[in-house]
């Protein structure tokens, strides 16, 4: 009788183990089907009006269909301006996305990239150029407002010394974004590569992303 009870106990334990394993697999499958979202704002620092495209990426299809008309998410963004914000919903398992930009008028000058999204991401998608080479970059938005100053960070297409007041605070790196710097004067408080950066269209107490090149400011975008 004791052997029978032991046998029954073993069966029960094995059954519970199988049930728990099954629940774990189901949970993973459920997680993959959860709906996630991300927001993207498009920055056109190019010299021409541009269309921005976005399309779910799969390993098998690559960039196929990225520049179809149905994938345009921010159209006719003027040169050196910020386009609209696009809200993208996706299943957790489909967190890879293709991004592209092209000349709005000719449909040419196509550039593309892909990235992996995180749930709740709020992103800048920046189209930029350096010495004739065009590129797309993705960085997270990062608001850091400070009272009575312009709080700015810079995305540059090259290496330029950055001066705040009389002090050199950093040297930019090509295709990278700096940390934040507080600027107290809107007209002469910030210089990049020896060029004064006019911040007077902004507001004190707010934070901004500046896209810059060798000639100074190209785009000023409120974070």
TrEMBL record:
Matching PROSITE patterns: PROKAR_LIPOPROTEIN (PS51257)
Superkingdom, natural source: Bacteria
Protein name: Lipoprotein
Native source species: Pseudoalteromonas rubra
